[in-house]
Amino acid sequence: MKILLTAQGDYIAQRFDLAAEAVIATADNGVLSGRPRTIIMDRPSPENLSNMVMEENIAVVICGGIEERHYQFLQWKKIRVIDYIIGEHSVALQRFLRGELQPGDILPLSRANLSL
Amino acid sequence: MSRKPLAVPGEVFLEDLLAGIPHASAVLDEGARIVAVNPLLEVLTGYRRDSAIGVYAEFILRSNLPNGRGQLFQRVLDSGEPVSMDGDIIDRNRMRVAVRFTLSALRLRRNSQAVGILVVLEDISQLQAKAKSTLFGDWTTDIIGHSKKMQDVFNVMPLMAHTDASILITGETGTGKDKIAEAIHRNSARGKFQFVKINCGALPPELLESELFGHVKGAFTGAVRDKPGMFKLADKGTIFLTEIGDMPLPLQVKLLSVLDDRSYFRVGGETKERVDVRVIAATHRSLREQVDRGAFREDLFYRLNVLQIHLPPLRERDGDIRFLLDHFLGDYADHLGKERQTFSAEALELLLAYSYPGNIRELRNIVEYCVNVCGKSVIDGEDLPRYLFTREVGVGQRAPAPPAPPTAGREPREPRGETGEGESWRTVEREMILDALRTARGNRSKAAQQLGLGRSTLWRKMRQLNLA
Predict the structure, then answer these.
(1) Contact check, Cβ <8 Å, B95/A114
(2) Under CATH, which number does the domain B145-312 receive?
(3) Measured between CB atoms, does A94 come within 8 Å of chain B?
(4) How many domains is chain A partitioned into structurally?
(5) Subunit contact B64:A15, Cβ cutoff 8 A
(6) Which SS3 state, helix, strand or coil, does residue A99 take?
(7) Which of the residue ranges B88-102, B270-284, B380-394 would you say has the lowest mean pLDDT?
(8) Contact B94 A65 (CB under 8 A)
(9) What CATH class does B315-464 carry?
């Protein structure tokens, strides 16, 4: 199963449409297989990001705020979306693999410096 | 989580402070983390206060501000200057909401380093939706006119909104000069800042200078505190100087220097005040004639007359009278919660033939009079204000009681084009003003309303006719 997390630095990007980075991880039965890879796009584009989700055969998208039309598109393509997540993407991924990540979760931050 | 008090003044709970703000608002600390939010922000973002406190604000707000690394927050903290920007957020319902963000620095003492930021998110989605339907496409939302002459005016207005040059609006009283000025301001880049209107003919010269440019404490007797003045209030926005032809010459010099240098001294002040203001001026007089008579500075005339709009009087706007009558009938019916009335053929013929020296203001007042006085569903000739019939008689005579016969429909124009019209019209005007003042028992506001004139216009006319 492939998981895509929208990213801005170490954090989940606060908006799907403004994300210019994505982290893609592959997991098998709740265990990561290989290191997650980061993809940097030319510019933020929700359409390009959605295309990437399709091309990469992503099963789960973990993101911050997402507009209804993009959310509905991903749902229509049978992709699970866990949105409104606040926190570091590595923590979000671990939580998801443990089956503990819910939409709207604010994750404990591992560092005091919140600058993006 | 316990409430955080603000250090000054006394013990103020931030939530109490934010509760008084009619928009979604939050207070951030120096690290741009949420310290307090109001219920409107909770509703907008979907995060309850207890969850949001301590979280970096951008995560909660989900805005599209150019603030990726918190540089906007830092700028406000460092400079202490407020920032206002339009953008959007994704709300709790996954909807993109247009928002005007205002970030202001919070200090414990004047001129000290900012210790926090007040963020106000004003939902402007309705405004933007309206602006999309009106911006340049339909300027007639507030300003009504289908005639060729008004369409010509509407055509040039968008061009004037796109520039920052001074504008001179000319036209008779009641033609809507202020509406045009406001529409240009609203649709210009300065639209979100102040539109300040001041009537140069309504104040004595000394007071006008203080109103326009402000004064410092002790500048003159009665100046008990500093006053910023209208130019300062209009900073980054537009100042609308109506009846500019009545501005005294010494003030014209000062206005010219503001237009040239964008700075001025307050009355009694020693430091220069810098302002960034667009000036729109209006007059019902011919400034060119005033320049020739020496009553208006030529250099100021050229400085103001960069762009010019002339508003035609209502009598020259073919077809607009009928349109405006219907519009105001509907408007007043809605306002008063009454059933919408109509004009009878006779009343309509009289109204369409009338010349409306007070232009749209007069027409609107006539309709208001009819709607209030007439209890029937059809407004007849006898329901129209009496003075409409007085005017048709002309020189110094009093009219017989209404209603006038329908055949007289083409008659009630002002005695224009007759020999000696200037003097005869002066006499009629004098009579009308005296009549109105008698009816209103000397109350100028009521008399002006009855005549379809502005209060200052009535005062000016009374001065001209040696009645004041």
Answers:
(1) no
(2) 3.40.50.300
(3) no
(4) 1
(5) yes
(6) coil
(7) B380-394
(8) yes
(9) mainly alpha
Which residue range is the domain that position A78 belongs to?
Answer: 2-97
Interior angle at CA B48, CA B46 and CA B54, nearest 5: 115
Inter-chain contact B93–A14, Cβ cutoff 8 Å?
no
CATH class of B5-128: alpha beta
Q: Per the domain annotation, does A58 fall within a domain?
A: yes
Q: Does A56 reside within a domain?
A: yes
CATH of the domain at A75: 3.30.420.130
DSSP bridge partners of B171: B311
What angle, 0 to 180 degrees and rounded to 10, lies between the N-to-C axes of helices B148-162 and B177-186?
40
Residues in chain B within 8 Å Cβ distance of A73: none
Residues of A within 8 A of B55 (CB-CB) are: 86, 106
Question: What ipTM was reported for this prediction?
Answer: 0.90
Domain boundaries in chain B? 5-128, 145-312, 315-464
Nearest residue, CB atoms, A65 vs list B31, B70, B90: B90
pTM: 0.48
Q: Are A63 and A6 in contact (CB under 8 A)?
A: yes
A17 found inside a domain? yes
Fold match between domain B145-312 and domain B315-464:
no
Verify whether the Cβ–Cβ distance A84 to B55 is below 8 Å: no
Are A64 and B58 an interchain contact pair (Cβ–Cβ within 8 Å)? no
A44 interfacial to chain B (CB closer than 8 Å): no
What would the pLDDT profile of B326-356 be if each residue is shown by its tens digit? 888 888 887 777 788 888 988 888 898 888 9
* Main-chain phi, psi angles of B202, to 5 degrees: -95, -5
Residue B6, amino acid: L
pLDDT digits (tens, 9 = 90+) for B141-182: 467 777 888 888 888 888 899 889 999 999 998 899 998 999
Answer whether A60's CB lies under 8 Å from A10's CB: no
